[in-house]
Amino acid sequence: MNQTLEGHSGAVQVIAWNDHHQKLTTSDQHGLIIVWMLYKGSWYEEMINNRNKSVVRGMKWNAEGGKICIVYEDGAVIVGSVDGNRLWGKELKGVNLSCVEWSPDGRTILFGTTKKEIHEIGRAV
After folding, report:
1. Sheet containing 56-61: order of strands
2. Could you tell me if 24 and 7 are in contact, meaning their C-beta atoms sit under 8 angstroms apart?
3. Could you tell me the pTM of the whole model?
4. pLDDT 10s digits, 16-31
5. CB-facing half-sphere around the CA of 58: CA atoms within 13 A
6. What are the distances in angstroms from CA 54 to CA 17, 66, 74, 97?
7. Which residues 6+ apart lie within 8 Å of 33 measured at CB?
8. What pLDDT, in 10s, does the model give residues 80-108?
9. What is the DSSP letter of 50?
10. Residues 47, 58 contacting (CB under 8 angstroms)
11. Are strands 56-61 and 23-28 parallel, antiparallel or unpaired?
């Protein structure tokens, strides 16, 4: 399949694949996030979110595909469900985030920063 996905007005900077639910999540240079779903051989926009405050630096679905963690450059962290509900959020003051990763068991989230640090949040939702 070869299909151009239209919906972003800026350069796509972050992409996250959800294998379990066959969804693609993209974010552009303006912070716009789009969740795409495959239906009858074509991709469609399923959800759109724009926090309008900062740029997304990392997105990662957990191993089961039920939760996504999104980190913003300004230190905001949001965990959402596959159906679009916000489950949890936190503002890490004075921290410029650069990446995110779930532990294999989904209980811990790790964040990388632009200052070469790793932060850990245990008991992830």
Report:
1. 56-61, 67-72, 76-81, 86-91
2. no
3. 0.91
4. 999 999 999 999 999 9
5. 23
6. 22, 24, 6, 11
7. 25, 26, 27, 47, 48, 49, 50, 56, 59, 70
8. 999 999 999 999 999 999 999 999 999 99
9. E
10. no
11. unpaired
Length of the chain: 125
How far apart, in whole angstroms, are the C-alpha atoms of residue 49 and residue 89? 15
Query: What letter would DSSP give residue 103?
Result: -
User: CA angle at residue 54 from 50 to 58, to 5 degrees?
Assistant: 85
Residue with tokens 């007005």: 9
End-to-end CA distance of the chain: 35
User: How many CB atoms neighbour CB 2 within 10 A?
Assistant: 3
CB 34 within 8 A of CB 26: yes
Tokens standing for residue 28: 């552009």
| Residue 70 contacts residue 25 (beta carbons within 8 Å) | no
Q: 13 — phi, psi (to 5°)?
A: -115, -25
Bridge-based pairing of strands 67-72 and 109-113 is unpaired
